[in-house]
Specification:
single chain; alpha+beta; Arc Repressor Mutant, subunit A; elongated; WH-like_DNA-bd_sf; UPF0251; DUF134 domain-containing protein; RNA_pol_sigma_r3/r4-like
């Protein structure tokens, strides 16, 4: 039996509480392959690449280890690259979020 999943604090400010789908213009969604990006993968991508945090800082914000952030980030980058190169649709699954100080507009390095 696998170990229970550790709760994660995910609150990417742009996609809280709803799902979004991004696709190439001019192609109906029914004609595209759909790649699903989990909310925690999006949050790791946003924290590290969008806000310039280190994996360790992102892990502290999300309440997980640096290794978990590294795995989430690698998966997210791989999916986004596949979607862009292969012209697929990217679906972002919405998830419940909890506000944390790490996601404020101020610097977390203070």
């Amino acid at each position: 039996m696998p170990r229970p999943r550790k709760p994660r604090t995910c609150i990417c400010p742009h996609r809280v509480g709803f799902a979004a789908v991004f696709k190439p213009a001019g192609t109906p969604l029914k004609d595209l392959d759909l790649v699903q990006l989990a909310h925690d993968e999006l949050d790791a991508l946003h924290l590290c690449d969008g806000q310039g945090k280190t994996q360790e800082e992102a892990g502290a914000c999300m309440g997980v280890s640096r290794g978990t952030v590294q795995r989430l980030l690698a998966a997210a980058r791989s999916k986004v690259a596949d979607v862009l190169v292969q012209q697929k649709a990217l679906a972002i699954s919405g998830g419940p979020g909890q506000a944390t100080a790490c996601h404020s507009t101020g610097s977390a390095k203070e």
